[in-house]
Amino acid sequence: MRLDDSLTPASLSAACAQVFSLAADKVRAIHATWDPRKGTPVFTIAGRYATRGWTEWTQGFQYGCAILAGDGLGDADLVELGRSQTLAAMAPHVTHIGVHDHGFNNLSTYGNLRRLGREAGAADDDWQQRFYALAIAASACAQASRWTERKEKDGIAGGFVHSFNGPHSLFIDTIRTVRILGVAHQLGHRFQGEGDAVISLLGRSVIHGLTSARWNIYYGEGRDTYDVRGRTAHESIFNRTDGAFRCPSSQQGFAPFSTWTRGLAWAILGYAEQLEFLDTLPASDFSPAGLPAKKDVLAAYRRAAEAVCDFWIDRGTALDGIPYWDTGAPLLVKLGDWQQRPADPFNDAEPVDSSAAAIAAQGLLRLGRWLGAQRGGAGLGRRYTQAGLTVAKSLFAEPYLSTSPKHQGLLLHTVYHRPNGWDHIPKGSKIPCGESALWGDYHALELALYLQRLEAKRKPYLTFFDQP
Fold this sequence. Notes:
Elements: H1 13-33, E1 43-45, E2 48-50, H2 59-73, H3 76-89, H4 91-94, H5 102-119, H6 127-144, E3 147-148, E4 160-161, E5 169-171, H7 179-186, E6 191-192, E7 198-199, H8 201-215, E8 235-238, E9 245-249, H9 261-280, H10 294-316, H11 354-372, H12 378-395, H13 438-455
Antiparallel strand pairs: 1-2, 3-4, 5-8, 6-7, 8-9
Helix pairs in contact: 1-2, 1-13, 2-3, 2-5, 2-13, 5-6, 6-7, 7-8, 8-10, 9-10, 9-11, 10-11, 11-12, 11-13
């Protein structure tokens, strides 16, 4: 991609304001027309949100969009809409033991509500704050219970929070959901197992991150024929008998040895946020959790974060920072030198995925800021910052920003599951295009709020965790 070095958060202020304004209308339109008996809205078909049964992983994004739009606009009614829907519908997600998506559903709702309360000066013993904290802690324990215990051959702990595919399966997506374990750790929650054994939530979160960094991310060290630094595998498969790594796999990407770009984006944002969080913890938190030293954990996470961000910039996207759904998609060859021109969501070969761009942009910005904070990475930090701003500029304008009041989605040209053929292909087109997904809308809003907070110094820096 080509970085625009002239961009600043302030230069995108008007675009962010438009994102919030459009989102407010769309949130209200969905609320007015959606029948909860259908399940959870997932993606649009011809501009109207529809459901898609797999897991109920998008309901938190639905209500989280109301909260974020209200936050960005200072609209208390929108925040209340998100709050009331959270209280009415989100409880089953708190104790859902069948999914790995707790950080998606419950930090998007309970987490944002708790953050807003703290920013408004609510005391930690306020009943609402305690209610949100309890929901987060319970959700973290439900997720942490999905634990596959294993050891690496070199003796390093190597367990992970397994995906809904089963205890053999590690998804790269989950690096952005285990952050809820970190919040519960900050809250001082005690997770107990058999015989009242205390299980460290911080320990499980970090070990999961180290395992994902080791097996779901490549570093150009000859692991296999397709070992290109910064590539990600959507899924890693482990032998359940001896815990050994067996092979990469993919559910939503093209192949185990190609790079599904939304998985790449989850890694970019997940590791960047975790670096920000772990850096705030005292070094004394790590040893009792059975972890390597704090400096070693940060080094491993930084190595992973820089690798995936570099791949995104150098090989993962078109010229404007927007990716196609998979860098190994088979018909990209028909697009010729696609990396040397802006992405074309209306082509006849392979779809783009703007939702991946919205996720990655925030991660690039966060890593850029973290590296720039006197860590000897100022040059790299600026590279990542300008990359994030470049992607945001592309997203917050047509053809990606949905300005039509007839379309319920906010961010156009997202893709859910290309291999399964779930995405709507409009008449006259050969590929999915022109549609939205709730995770794309949510992360576009989160990106806009993040940029707004960077510009508006009077408000706290946006994090999922409690800042010191």
